What we know:
Blueprint: H1 6-18, E1 29-34, E2 37-43, H2 53-56, E3 60-61, E4 64-65, H3 71-82, E5 90-95, H4 99-107, E6 112-117, H5 123-131, E7 135-138, H6 150-166, H7 171-185
Parallel strand pairs: 5-6, 6-7
Antiparallel strand pairs: 1-2, 1-5, 3-4
Amino acid sequence: xxxxxxxxxxxxxxxxxxxxxxxxxxxxxxxxxxxxxxxxxxxxxxxxxxxxxxxxxxxxxxxxxxxxxxxxxxxxxxxxxxxxxxxxxxxxxxxxxxxxxxxxxxxxxxxxxxxxxxxxxxxxxxxxxxxxxxxxxxxxxxxxxxxxxxxxxxxxxxxxxxxxxxxxxxxxxxxxxxxxxxxxxxxxx
Length: 189
Ligand SMILES: [Zn+2]
Ligand SMILES: [Zn+2]
């Protein structure tokens, strides 16, 4: 059995955190890492004890929900709260950071950003990261790694396809089903 890479491990952690998001607009997770250790994590949500967008609806101003603190900010603020240095750290985020988070990340001394999904990718954020020599790299999450039943599912579907072929389903049809299954079961990293 293959071990998952550190990148995949930390990116999976950010995706788990995103599941805790309370804003219905976008679920984001962020994990701050130093020396291959998780030092903080965050998701986008209201301030502690505040009402949740998921319950009350988003508080929209100028096209943005102003109730929530972004995942990256929450992770950085967790470090501030507990006095954990972020200088030279790395951050794993589910989505490309917005311009506000971009500036905070740079100012916190974080030197590497791994993001899974493109999200607006503001050109000014790209420019600032470049200016600050922050390394930005896309690391897509291989969703298979958090599906513990992946191998069983794969075997089951392969067996079903084989049975369909044995029952004499047209080759063209089999090929299409096979393609669909491949799309679902093949990792892209
Ligand atoms: Zn919201
Ligand atoms: Zn942000």
